[in-house]
């Protein structure tokens, strides 16, 4: 009911196209991916937030994924013809309106943040929802917009600007603690100051999925050109092998750019000395080698952003590449992001 109601709010916003909805049972969190022109995209995100405000109660929320609010994070991603600085203004418009219209606390992150100690999600979300009431009382954690009074059923929201992010989970036959141990080895932050991990632009934690009876290394790749998905996957396999643990595949949360899938395909083509020329065959090779269908489906037409835009069909979106799509909706088009390309994330 809640997931559908928020979907309807986004879908009903003129000028906005809802591309994907990706709920997670154990994480109790849903990623919404939608695109549109600068004015419409703010309205779509606000419409989603207003429904979430009515239906979500964070005092009752539990889930494996770190979170601090009902609308946990709403990033805006410049896709084409717009600078990060211009998108910062879009995110600030959204943050200011969200704080004013709902009476909640809003933080800026990424390119929109002006404070080095609160640039990243792990920095801002430290302590999670349970610590927000005390955190808001500290001068250094005063929100960028809105009240310093804790709103229990909402928590707080983060918004800002960043590059494409790939949310990527690696499946393991292991305990939560073993998965987290490997996550600490991989993630850029590592185990703390002076103990950096091996992969740049990588955030990671370990958790356990009760419904699947497996552990996962939950990875956010903040720049897949620096650390591609296949590198994260292969590095996790190396560490798992040293612990005599099995890696059984992986999954993408939300959408993923075609370039990231083709990166993985080219790696396995070279590694295995394969002869593959067709794009669709490369896509299927990457899906197979990364095990993207082991615990959930992965339909390229529904999960790869370029293919997803083609599927929307009709008018200016029909048979469009990402570049053509962006040109068709506006000369300057930011999109709100989470998952891979454009999304609003709510903890549900």
TrEMBL record:
Residues 1-163 form the Formiminotransferase N-terminal subdomain domain. Keywords: Cytoplasm, Cytoskeleton, Folate-binding, Golgi apparatus, Histidine metabolism, Lyase, Multifunctional enzyme, Transferase. GO terms for molecular function: folic acid binding; formimidoyltetrahydrofolate cyclodeaminase activity; glutamate formimidoyltransferase activity. Its EC number is 2.1.2.5, 4.3.1.4. Pathway: Amino-acid degradation; L-histidine degradation into L-glutamate; L-glutamate from N-formimidoyl-L-glutamate (transferase route): step 1/1. Pfam families: FTCD (PF02971), FTCD_C (PF04961), FTCD_N (PF07837). Residues 164-308 form the Formiminotransferase C-terminal subdomain domain. The keyword Transit peptide does not apply. One of its GO terms (biological process) is L-histidine metabolic process. InterPro entries: Cyclodeamin/CycHdrlase, Formiminotransferase_C, Formiminotransferase_C_sf, Formiminotransferase_cat, Formiminotransferase_N, Formiminotransferase_N_sf, FormiminoTrfase_cat_dom_sf, Formintransfe-cycloase-like_sf. It is found in: Cytoplasm, Cytoskeleton, Microtubule organizing center, Centrosome, Centriole; Golgi apparatus. One of its GO terms (cellular component) is centriole. Homooctamer, including four polyglutamate binding sites. The subunits are arranged as a tetramer of dimers, and form a planar ring-shaped structure. Folate-dependent enzyme, that displays both transferase and deaminase activity. Serves to channel one-carbon units from formiminoglutamate to the folate pool. In the C-terminal section; belongs to the cyclodeaminase/cyclohydrolase family. This is Formimidoyltransferase-cyclodeaminase. It comes from Halocaridina rubra (Hawaiian red shrimp).
């Amino acid at each position: 009911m809640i997931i559908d109601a928020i979907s309807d709010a986004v879908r009903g916003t003129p000028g906005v196209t809802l591309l994907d909805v990706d709920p997670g049972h154990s994480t109790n969190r849903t990623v919404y991916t939608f695109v549109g022109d600068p004015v419409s995209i703010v309205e779509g995100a606000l419409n989603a937030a207003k429904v979430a405000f009515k239906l979500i109660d964070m005092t009752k929320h539990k889930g494996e994924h770190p979170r601090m609010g009902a609308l946990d994070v709403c990033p805006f991603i410049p896709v084409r013809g717009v600078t990060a600085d211009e998108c910062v203004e879009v995110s600030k418009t959204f943050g200011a309106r969200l704080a004013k219209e709902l009476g909640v606390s809003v933080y800026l992150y990424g390119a929109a943040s002006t404070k080095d100690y609160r640039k990243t999600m792990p920095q801002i979300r430290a302590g999670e929802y349970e610590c927000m009431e005390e955190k808001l009382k500290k001068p250094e954690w005063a929100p960028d917009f809105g009240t310093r009074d804790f709103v229990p059923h909402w928590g707080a929201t983060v918004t800002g600007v960043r590059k494409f992010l790939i949310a990527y989970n690696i499946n393991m036959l292991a305990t939560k603690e073993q998965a987290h141990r490997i996550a600490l080895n991989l993630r850029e932050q590592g185990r703390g100051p002076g103990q950096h991990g091996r992969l740049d632009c990588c955030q990671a934690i370990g958790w356990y999925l009760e419904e699947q009876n497996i552990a996962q290394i939950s990875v956010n790749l903040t720049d897949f050109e620096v650390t591609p998905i296949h590198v994260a996957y292969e590095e996790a396999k190396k560490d798992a092998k040293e612990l005599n643990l099995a890696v059984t595949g992986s999954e993408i949360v939300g959408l993923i750019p075609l370039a990231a899938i083709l990166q993985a395909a080219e790696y396995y083509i070279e590694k295995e000395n394969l002869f593959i020329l067709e794009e669709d065959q490369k896509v299927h090779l990457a899906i197979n080698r990364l095990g993207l269908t082991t615990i959930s489906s992965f339909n390229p037409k529904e999960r790869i952003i370029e293919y997803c835009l083609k599927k929307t069909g009709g008018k200016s979106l029909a048979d469009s590449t990402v570049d053509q799509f962006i040109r068709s909706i506006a000369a300057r088009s930011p999109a709100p992001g989470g998952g891979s390309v454009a999304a609003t994330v709510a903890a549900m």
